[in-house]
Each structure stands twice: as C-alpha cells, then as structure tokens.
C-alpha cells in the first residue's frame, strides 16, 4: 500500500474518532507494509487523558505483536503528534512518523503549549524521522474544522 494511503487511513481514523465523540486525531502503525495497530482519540469517553490516537495505535500494535519494541515501524498520524505521543513513539522505538496536519496549523491548546516538536526531537536519544505530507494537510484539517464547528 502506498504511504499516502496509510496516511489517508489515519485521517479516516480521525473521522471515526469524531463520530464516536472524540478528538479529531487518528493514527495507524505500519510495519513491513502491514497495519499492525490503529487508534482513535477518545480519551474523553474512556476517562483516559493518555488515550490519543497515536497512543492507542502504539498500544494496539504492541499488543498485536506481543512486544514493546516497534523497531522498523512507521506511525502515520492525521495530526503532528503531541509531546506525549512523540515520547511514546520514542519509548516504543518507532523510527518514523508521517503526518498530515502540522502543529502550527492548529491552536496551541490542542498540544498543551507553544513548544516546537522538531526542536525537541533533536534532543532525544533516538530522534524520530518526522515527515509532513502537505498534500494531505487540508483533508486532515477539514476533519478538525468540522469537529470545531460541532462544538
């Protein structure tokens, strides 16, 4: 499956998240060309502030592979991951994050502050390759705007 198709899958997970009353973010974890985990952002429904789409996708992938080591896996995220999700990606050894909507297109409140993820990433023991896909930014942003308008 082409990389952009995995990213479109993550954006569909964001739509699913909104449909279930959650935040408009979704993610899938891919290894060897196969989705090994997927997640939506319904922490508000689960009473779990750590249940972001990326965190849920990492948990799902680790459970499915019976490991905590996702070396060689790629995370596809509808939005650029927050600090917590970036940290979980580091701890699970994800090597690359491909995302549609960058942090700077959204309000800082969605990320818990005005930090620059790219700058923090360079300080990590194992920096993660972070790749924005501008051609899918508007599709992801549309899901966010629809969610915002529904509030």
Outline the structure in words:
The chain is of the alpha/beta class. Helices cover 42% and strands 22% of the residues. It is built from six helices and five strands, in the order H-E-E-H-H-E-H-E-H-E-H. A five-stranded mixed β-sheet has the order 2-1-3-4-5. Helix 1 runs parallel beside helix 6. It is globular and about 40 Å long. The N and C termini lie far apart (35 Å).
Query: What can be said about the biggest beta sheet?
Result: 5 strands, mixed
Quaternary arrangement of the chains shown?
single chain
Structure summary, number of beta strands = 5
- Average pLDDT over all residues: 94
Q: What separation lies between the terminal Cα atoms?
A: 35 Å
Structural class: alpha/beta
Specify the helix fraction band.
Answer: 40-55%
- Largest sheet, order of strands side by side? 2-1-3-4-5
Q: Give the percentage of residues in beta strands.
A: 15-25%
List the secondary-structure elements in sequence, H or E.
HEEHHEHEHEH
Q: How many helical stretches?
A: 6
Shape annotation = globular
Short description:
With 151 residues, the chain is an alpha/beta fold.
List strands and helices in order, with pairings.
Blueprint: H1 3-19, E1 23-31, E2 34-41, H2 43-46, H3 53-65, E3 74-79, H4 83-91, E4 96-101, H5 117-122, E5 129-132, H6 137-150
Parallel strand pairs: 3-4, 4-5
Antiparallel strand pairs: 1-2, 1-3
Helix pairs in contact: 1-6
